[in-house]
Sequence to fold (156 residues):
Amino acid sequence: MMALAVLLATGICGAGLRAQEVLKVKDNGVIETAPGSFDSYIGKGNYVLVDFWASWCGPCMQESPNVVKVYEDYRDKGLVVLGVLVNDKLENSKTAMRRLGMKYDQVIDPENVQVKKFGITGIPHLILFGPDGKVVKRGMRGPEIEASVKEALGGF
Fold:
């Protein structure tokens, strides 16, 4: 938590990242950068699980398998999973995405607009948004992630 605060305060954030872009994983596993933003995912009629994370964050690396599992289990049931890269280098993010099997989009947010907007002081931090864009739940970890998604989607 302290490391995030120091990076935000010193302006070291986001080395190698560009605003208003998204990392997308193609069917062949290639990760490409495309135009996009956080707001293009939220409030569009689907539940969206957002994972604020970084490749340098040990707890994020431990939590990522839970998020990947929820993505795999619920993507065909109407859930969108979205990562938000926090103070990470683009190549490090891509390497972690490949290693962890993250096949969902990742918002590049070098100015930490979303971190500030949602008052996030430490990562990993997960937020579940409803189809209308309102926060359903936040701060889930471990098995609570899947339980929250399952409940929101009506017990699938």
